[in-house]
Amino acid sequence: MADVRRGLFVDPWGSELPEDYVRIVQHFGLEPFTDDLLAALPRPNKLMRRKVVFCHRGLWAIAKAIREREPFYVLTGIMPSAEKLHLGTRMVIENFAYFQDVGAAEAYLLVADVEAVATRGLTLQEARRRALEFHIPAYLALGVDPDKTRFYFQSENKTVLKLMARFSGKVTMAEMEAIYGSLTPGKIVAALLDAADILYPQMRTRMPGVIPVGIDQDPHIRLARDLVKRTKSEFGFLAPASIYHKFTPGLDGSLKMSKSLPGPYKIELPEDPKGIERKIWKALTGGRGSLAEQRAKGGEPERCVVFELFKQHLIEDDRELDRIYEECRSGARICGECKTYASELMAEFMEAFQARMEEARSLVRELEFVTE
Ligand code: SF4
User: Fold this and answer.
1) CA 9 to CA 27: how far, in whole Å?
2) Which residues of the chain fall short of a pLDDT of 70?
3) Is 341 exposed, middle or buried (0-12, 13-18, 19+ CB in 10 A)?
4) 293, 334, 343, 346: which to mutate for ligand 1, most atoms within 8 A of CB?
């Protein structure tokens, strides 16, 4: 795992992650998310405006498709490994919904049930139950539009399974290990399936596509882009674009609020607002050692997990976020105010999420799942 820390591999299945985003961008040849690109996207969402989205591959092609009203797709997957989501997953959904709404992308939401069997030891039945009862409703509750989305289960989609089999003959173990590091048979199945998912919409229509992900998922994008080159004469796929957001930090200040982080340091969906409030009050802030010092020197919002919650999740209005930043820097604001406010906003968000879940569960019963 030392290699992961050195930034040589990012591990889509692990919880050890690269600590230096800039080095990762350089090492893997990612493109920074620049102001020019931001300006090329209509009505960018808050993650884009605030550079929580920090790099991409090939997103200019998608910006062009949006501008010229050409077809493109957006795709994301659900891994039904736990019966909760952690807060960070919401950012993938926010970016997915952006391309669905603003760009009118053809949208695909898949359930990675075969991957859950291969890498998490679930049965297909259990993966399906969790997806139908919790994950799909949660994605709808967080902004996915069911009327504009095609849904499928990996295990039922014959085109995806055939594509995966085809891809298995197009790459060697050494090449897979160069991308992923050490592999198990289950991870090989999952990686090839992910590549098949990413390119599957182009089996219907050749068009550019974008995959919103956390940076730890980049190996799947690299494999898919490699396979595009290797199967050029057979399929003629266009290289998929990707867009990467920073992680929501753990409440202890650790890099990622992952599923494996201990309970007090993460916020899950759904979660009791009282419990969240207790956690937020213990969260790492950029506050000073004493009130007098904070008033004199100001706080450090750049190091503050509570400010990061405002920035990534809780505050839509940029002017309000700027105001909190300035008040913190000047010492006009103290951490207790922020913690109280963050707890209130989080409680509102959880309440709204739970209400939308009820609605979404009834919608799921009417969904149709694509099988080829
Ligand atoms: Fe963070 Fe608010 Fe404290 Fe500033 S005042 S360090 S933004 S909690």
Assistant:
1) 10
2) 1-20
3) middle
4) 334
